[in-house]
Design a protein that fits this description.
Layout: E1 2-6, E2 13-18, E3 21-24, H1 34-38, H2 41-52, E4 65-66, E5 75-79, H3 83-88, E6 98-102, E7 107-108, E8 114-116, E9 123-124, E10 127-133, E11 149-156, E12 159-160, H4 161-166, H5 172-175, E13 181-182, E14 187-189, E15 200-205, E16 208-214, H6 222-230, E17 240-242, E18 264-269, E19 274-281
Length: 284
């Protein structure tokens, strides 16, 4: 099943994507939040669709998509999880996952504008596979990790490199600016993805290919990451885990390349669709 949310920002309704068609399922009363994932939401939605799919309104292609889930309790990110990205960053591949957080207020729809932060000169891109947690997870074994995953989504982990690296302290400052976490276009349940560790990822800027990778090159697999994080914190239904990016980020070029106003960033992952953001300069 593929979940979408649609409508004006802050007023999104629930929908699904079936056979390429966007359907409004808000009449089901289901909202894609923590309660949905914790209480058999997929099963309840499937039952509702059996009875009501034929009468569900079809959405036009011009309807705005929001992030496919409501604001989660946390967005957890894994840094340097592709060896080629660690190399371009001039860092040794980690022996344990590098963990940092991204503010949930950064989450927006997949095709919303990217707002370059005030005074920013080093806003960068990162195409990533995101895991969405399906049930409360604490001290989960790697063998059982898949039982705790609701599904997967496309994420662009935008970063302001000066804030992240030069302003000292933790990376979160360079990761949490408004619009820095476009998610979607949809959340795909696990059964929609044949092999999550063999998915192509790509990103272009103004039509030029910048990133091209595959999840088989992750240093730490999705199952490992879920198990690892659950040893240190409770993962709640709806939580997002962004699993790292392959080589080709702006910081890795010589000289570095950073996002400018009116740049168009497009990205995608096999089976998880694509998204597009247009960069705009912050205005008060």
């Amino acid at each position: 099943m593929k979940l979408i949310r649609f409508g004006p920002s802050g007023k999104e309704k629930s929908g699904v994507l079936i056979d390429g068609q966007r359907l409004d399922v808000s009449a089901s009363g289901l909202v894609y939040n923590e309660d949905f994932f914790a209480n058999q939401g997929f099963e309840k939605l499937a039952e509702w669709l059996k009875a009501h799919q034929d009468g569900a309104p079809v959405l036009g292609e011009d309807v705005r998509l929001g992030a496919p889930i409501c604001r989660p309790s946390k967005i957890i990110c894994i840094g340097l999880n592709y060896s080629d990205h660690a190399k371009e960053a001039g860092m040794t591949p980690p022996s344990q996952p590098v963990v940092f957080f991204k503010a949930t207020s950064a989450m927006v729809g997949p095709n919303d504008d990217l707002i370059i932060p005030k005074d920013s000169q080093k806003t960068d891109w990162e195409v990533e596979l995101a895991i969405v947690i399906g049930k409360k997870a604490s001290y989960v074994t790697r063998e059982r990790a898949r039982d705790y995953i609701a599904g997967y989504s496309l994420h662009n982990d935008y970063s302001e490199r000066a804030y992240q690296i030069e302003h000292e302290g933790q990376w979160v400052k360079g990761k949490s600016c408004d619009t820095f976490a476009p998610l979607g276009p949809f959340l795909a349940s696990q059964d929609e993805i044949q092999d999550v560790q063999d998915l192509n990822l790509w990103l272009t800027v103004n039509g030029k290919k910048m990133q091209a990778g595959n999840t088989k090159n992750m240093i730490f697999s999705c199952d490992y990451i879920v198990s690892y994080l659950s040893q240190y914190m409770t993962l709640l239904p709806g939580d997002v885990i962004s699993t790292g990016t392959p080589a080709g980020v702006g910081l890795g070029f010589d000289p570095p390349i950073y996002i400018k106003p009116n740049d168009v960033i497009e990205l995608g992952i096999d089976g998880l669709g694509s998204s597009k953001q247009v960069a705009k300069r912050y205005t008060p």
